[in-house]
Amino acid sequence: MSTTFYTTGPDVPVTGVTASSPLSATISQTPNISLSGIVSIAHGGTNSSTALTNGLVVVSSGGKIVEGSITSAKLATMPVWTKYSLTHTDLAAASTSNTIQLFSLPAKGIIHTVILKSTTQFSGGAISSYVIAVGIQGNLTKYSDGTYDVTTAVSGTFFQLGVSQPPQPEDFGSATSIKIAAVSVGANLDQASAGALDVYVETSLLP
Q1: Under a CB-based contact definition with an 8 Å cutoff, are residues 180 and 199 in contact?
Q2: Which of 15, 118, 127, 184 is the most buried (most CB within 10 A)?
């Protein structure tokens, strides 16, 4: 059974509808449709009669959508890994050095770890060395020291763990631009014709 509702007025209560009976609405305005009973996940419900409160992370448990024990505020402060993927064209320049923004670290943000991992060997022209650094303006090697040479053959064990230092925020009041810098030897960076790199960054945010 399919039930279509046409309304531009007040809330429309719907009762006596089972989970196997989908609802649809064709209207000029979005209706407010309230259902009695438990609506299955397959039909857009939670499969649960437990009321939800504010501020907790929702999880799936026992085939139902319920609240967990972690608050959304706490989740926002937990460390998280992000992968940034670049190719030789992102770092290209008519120069042997170039610096671009990798990402913007929000106020109160902390960088815990940086890992560099080439996925395609960098090559092209007369380039004999092509090293990568990660840092901030004024200290481009703060998080990765600029010795990771991506002209080295790619392998599962060829990666670099960034500079070890006590975790601390860059700025409590403003976002900080996190930079990635490239330096080549033998030819300008724009002579590279191949190359790809992943930068993994673990960050967290102070409450």
Answers
A1: yes
A2: 184
Sheet containing 139-149: order of strands:
97-105, 176-185, 129-136, 139-149
- 3-class DSSP state of 72: helix
Residues 6+ apart with CB under 8 A from 139: none
Domain ranges of the chain: 3-74, 79-205
Q: CA-CA distance, 76 to 207, in Å (whole number)? A: 8
Give residue 189's region: left, alpha or beta (phi > 0; psi -120 to 50). alpha
Sheet holding 194-205: strands in order across?
80-87, 194-205, 109-123, 160-161
Contacts of 122 (CB under 8 A, 6+ apart): 88, 130, 150, 151, 192, 194, 195, 197
Does the domain at 79-205 match CATH 1.10.8? Answer given as no
CA 207 distance to own-chain centroid: 19
pTM of the model as a whole = 0.70
